[in-house]
Specification:
- By secondary structure, the protein is of the alpha/beta class.
- It has one domain: Glutaredoxin, CATH 3.40.30.10.
- It is built from 5 helices and 5 strands; from the N terminus they run βααβαβαββα.
- It has a 5-stranded mixed β-sheet with strand order 1-3-2-4-5, with helices on one face.
- β2, α3 and β3 form a beta-alpha-beta unit.
- The two termini are about 25 Å apart.
C-alpha cells in the first residue's frame, strides 16, 4: 500500500531539501510520488505503484499536494529544488540514496526501473 505523506514530512523536505531517511531508507527500494489529484497519469500509475509497495523490501509514499493547505509552498519547493514542473513526479531511492527521477512511466518501464541492481 502507498502511504500518504504527512504535512510534517513534506514541510521537513522543504526545510532540508529532500525527504528524511526514515522514508528514503524505510526499505531497500523506495518510491516517493509527488502529484496532484486531477492528474490522469497518476490515476493510471497508482494501481501498479500500490502493488510495488506491497512487496517485501519495497515502500512507497505519495502526496497529492493540490489537496493540501501547504500547496503553494510545496509546489514552489518541488519546481525550484527538484526542477520538475510536471506531475506525477517520482523519486526512486535504493538503500536511501536517490538513484532515479521520472515523470509518468507505464508499468513495463516502471518494472524495469525498480529491478534490483
Amino acid at each position: 500500500m502507498l502511504i500518504k505523506l504527512t504535512e510534517e514530512q513534506c514541510r521537513q523536505a522543504i526545510r532540508v531539501g529532500d525527504f528524511a531517511p526514515e522514508l528514503t531508507k524505510a526499505a531497500p527500494l523506495v518510491v516517493i510520488v509527488l502529484t496532484q489529484s486531477w492528474c490522469p497519469q497518476w490515476t493510471r500509475m497508482r494501481p501498479f505503484l500500490e502493488s510495488f509497495s506491497e512487496e517485501v523490501g519495497r515502500a512507497g509514499w505519495f502526496v497529492e499536494y493540490d489537496r493540501e493547505t501547504f500547496f503553494e509552498d510545496f509546489r514552489s519547493f518541488k519546481e525550484a529544488k527538484f526542477r520538475n514542473e510536471e506531475v506525477p513526479y517520482l523519486r526512486y531511492y535504493r538503500e536511501g540514496r536517490l538513484v532515479k527521477e521520472t515523470n509518468y512511466v507505464d508499468k513495463g518501464c516502471f518494472d524495469k526501473l525498480v529491478v534490483p541492481a
